[in-house]
Amino acid sequence: MTIDELGEQSIRKNKADFYYLIEAFQEVLLALGEEGIAKTMPWVNEPSKISPEQIETEKFIQALSISFQLLNLIDENNATHHRRKLENHLSPDRIKGSWAETLKHFNDEDIHASDVLKELEKMRVRPVLTAHPTEAKRVTVLEIQRELYKLLVRRENPNLSVSEKDKVRKDIMSLLERWWRTGDIYLEKPRLEDERNNILHYFKNVFPRALDLVDNKLSYAWDKAGFDSDQLKEASHYPVLEFGSWVGGDRDGHPFVTPDFTKETLGVHRQLALQIHLESLKSLVKQLSFSENLVGVPEWFDQKLKDFSDEMGVAGKKILKRNIGEPWRQFTGLMILKLKNSLNTKTLSKPQYVHASELLSDIEAIKKSLEEVNGDRTIRNCIFPIERKLICFGFHLAKLDIRQNSAYHEKAISQILKMADFEDYDYGTWSEDKRMEFLNRELQTSRPFLMPGFKCEGESEQVISYFKVIKDHVDAYGPDGIGSFIISMTRSLSDILVVFLFFREVGLDHEPFQVAPLLETIEDLEAGEHIIADYLKHPITQPRFEGKEKIQEVMLGYSDSNKDGGILSSRWTIYKTEKILTAVAKKHGFELNFFHGRGGTISRGGGKIHRFLHSMPPGSVSGQIKMTIQGETIANQYANLLNATYHLEMQLSGSAWQTLDKRSEDPHEFAYSILDRLEEKSKKKYRSLIDHPQFIPFYRQVTPIDVLEESKIGSRPSRRTGQTSLDDLRSIPWVFSWSQARFNLTGWFGLGQSLKEIKEETPEDFEKLKTLAESWSFFKYLMIQLETNLLGVDTEIVLAFKALMEDQAVAAELTDLVLADYQLALDLTDEVLGGHREKRRFAKYEDNQLRNQGLAPLHQIQLDQIKQWRSAKASDQQTETSKQKSLHNQLLIVNALAGGLKSTG
């Protein structure tokens, strides 16, 4: 079978599986007496037979919402199925982003196994889960979907009997009934605890199991590549896959993330990590049943067992008596006892593990003893997975990043200066020179501003309190559970250095924490060269890295830079920033660990992870990388084990691919001037739209942004400060609102005009763009992503939303401006990428056609509801009850469309 034939087979399977579920769902609805809904469902009914008068709106919306989420589940399952087909019918290295593909690439490039191994040992890849307001599903619904997914997988078993297949169908219908009767959105905004629990599900139930599978993928690919399997024998030879979280640490514009919640989160993380390791040891104690009568016990291990038993006291002696003649089981039993003491806060006086390294040391003792009795297979199957979990999860589970806005820090330091009796305490009004003079002077002394017991208020109280929480946690358990201190909207060196004053206030100034600037806007990204250079050569920086690897973290923002200059300007500026900052760091003896603040949608940096990694500048990945995994992307990528394994594999293998790309120069540097012109023209076109004097009224009336601002999706406010400016609006509702209205404006606007001008002014450069789309991974990835967003535009829906604006002259002017660039972008993208898009993107067109059958009636209902809702609000004649009912229906529609479009910002 060819790869094209497998692709066509996958498309057919997708449709067949979807119709199987839709028909089962229809059967459930009929059984529940919902005949009106069942007979007006798209896909299984003629569209012409569906009219608003026939249906009960709320239930119809819910039915479509469930249908789209079923389709998304099918997509996930069939993606896994397709990868298996590729592996079985062709070769594992045909799976894009896999370890097999990456190691084949290394072989093709004559990169030796020893060089690969050297880099693997240094690699640290950290996905960071966030709770931005993009996940619209309830936790209960997510649980139902997980059960459904398992049944879909079971249904594919070719050995099932007829009765077993019937049982699977009945179980599916039972879950669909439960889902139908559960409801689909939050009636109240979810609590932070809900968001944390959702994230913790993945840390506890998915990632530990996925880690084993990812390691097996690397091991298998290593052998198949012809490398020596003994080289990958040790757990320390594998790349470190560690995890991060923002839930409980990200307080930028989120007033509900209190110091107490941060403290509680760190505690929960530790408890769950200990439970993961406890479960591993409980499995191990069953496996290590070796008898001392059959296997000779090393003398040193026998003595260590006696010493361990003595350390654990009476309880330790009981364990020895319980497993007489089984020394490895006895030793593991003692480890379980000691770890249980760590979990139980009432046993602080008893021997316990405080740090993961202590437990790892005992695991290493078992490993060494087994090596001496030829227990290599037991080591690989039983000991190795525990070592890896201890290395990757430690006793902290995930590193909690602490994020705050630079403006918030300014207010906090001003208040502290006022309490310390500074005459000119208004730090926010100071020039950068004055700030630097002050900071340079203060950072030379260890004297804090505030005396012990001094009571702060406002922003300063919050800042000092959560820094104290970090200090207390580090004193008790060490720094492993703390990630980076991230400063949103970093615009100058002083924004970074002020964090060190807060460290000093609570006694954290000697801890090795990363203080990471977040460069978000186009202007800040362009200023990054000077900010990072000044920071790396500052007197406070170099001493912090003495005796350590000189690796500095820098976070790049894909969302605000897009809102600021449009997608093409954002992506090209970020690319150049990575290249420039990498050179700056090298000049000062540092390597950079870029933290990519990617959202779920293409507009906010989303997309295929391996293509994203391959598109980075040569030399910009030095074995360490972080990236955010946000909102609906978390469930899409990690809800089921095999899909989670693949996405983690892509992050690891893609990072290895880029790390071993040792080219010092970008072979496509000749094209930089063309991209500079393309970016400038695109940004100019984009700014001409959003700087239009009537743009804000246009935006607020031709998108459902007012509905989203009322939504119950996520615990975070939609605006940072509550102001109504475009600058203050978070990027997520900005992207979400344009996608709901089918403009997809944030994912392509400006491209058409910029390509047109390049083609007219310098036709030879336009021809070069065609070549670059084949040879340059960055440009190819960018153009495919822009085209994907273009294919999601629906001009009929756009024109329908245009009709919502009161001033139709303005609506026509701005909509015509947008659609003109849209048509240009479509046509010229075809020229650049070659061939017609319907043939080139066949699978995408098929998917769009399937989805549009359900999207069309949903959009019509949404438009009608928005008109009624806005009219009632304007007349001020709505009762509170009718207002809430109307809003509830609006949110149902928003959620249903989010599932259908596979996009929530």
Written overview of the protein:
There is one protein chain. Helix 10 runs parallel beside helix 12. Mean pLDDT is 91; it is low at 718-723. The chain starts with a helix and ends with a helix. It has 36 helices and 9 strands. Strands 1-3-4-5-6-7-8-9 form an 8-stranded parallel beta barrel, surrounded by 7 helices. Strand 8 (591-597), helix 22 (609-614) and strand 9 (624-630) form a beta-alpha-beta unit. The protein has 905 residues and is mainly α. The chain has a domain at 670-901.
Low-pLDDT runs of 5+ residues are: 718-723
How do the strands of the widest beta sheet line up side by side? 1-3-4-5-6-7-8-9
Mean pLDDT score, rounded? 91
Radius of gyration of CA atoms, rounded to a whole number: 29 Å
Biggest β-sheet: count, sense, barrel?
A: 8 strands, parallel, barrel
CA distance, first residue to last residue: 38 Å
The proportion of residues in beta strands is: 5-15%
Helix content: 55-70%
Please report the total strand number as a whole number: 9
- Count of DSSP-assigned helices: 36
Q: Give the overall shape, derived from the CA principal axes.
A: globular
- Structural class, please? mainly alpha
